[in-house]
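seq:
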Amino acid sequence: MAFAFVQDFSQQAGDTTTANYDAIHAAIMDKVADQPTGLVIHTAGFTGETFRIFEVWESREQCERFQSEVVMPTVMEVTAGDPGAPPTTTTYELHNVMPAYGWLRPPSPTSPGGPSSWTSGPRPAQQEIRACGRACGSVGMRAGGRSRCGTVQPKEPGMHTTIRQYRGNGTEELFDALEQREPEVRELISTVPGFVSYTAFRTGDGGTTVTVCQDKAGTDESTRRAAAWVGDNIRVPIDAPSITEGDASLEF
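struct:
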């Protein structure tokens, strides 16, 4: 089952320093030869109240293994055993994941990896490549990829994430409709210019959607399309969601 992993680190008012995160990330990249097995997307950025890491994994087990075997030992090394106040961690299973290259298909009895295995849609045949700007010897880097020294090659432009949390009137009807009309919703949202990924999932007291685009113009357009679709297809009043959005410091 696809799995979301979220960490919120408290920040002082006006503090937008990412030095600790950048150092830990670079150290992790030195240890990891390729993208971690099972990782679908990793983003990091300021929400205005916290510094948030949001990840999607193909399974809980893969996420927890990477955290225990790679992330936490590296954090202790970089911080000399004093990582500071622990973040607030939230985890949950996802109903659907739709990255830009296709989507993660839910498990089925005919899944190639078995009935519990999620599979991904086709990736693009070609991506822009470039060399690392820190002269570490890495070449042929895909845009948004990383070099041996941990440098992340820039995407155009920085990723923008919008998170909407729904509670109250109309939430159940909205998420029922999203699930029942998934192909229609996929076509509507995935064709937004600069689209990266869209996730929708139910929580204990409502539901949440996460939209990632290459810039704020993309997430704004997805909001406009979604609002029009809801107006045309949901016949009950829906309480306005709480919205958190911001530019990602990193995505890979």
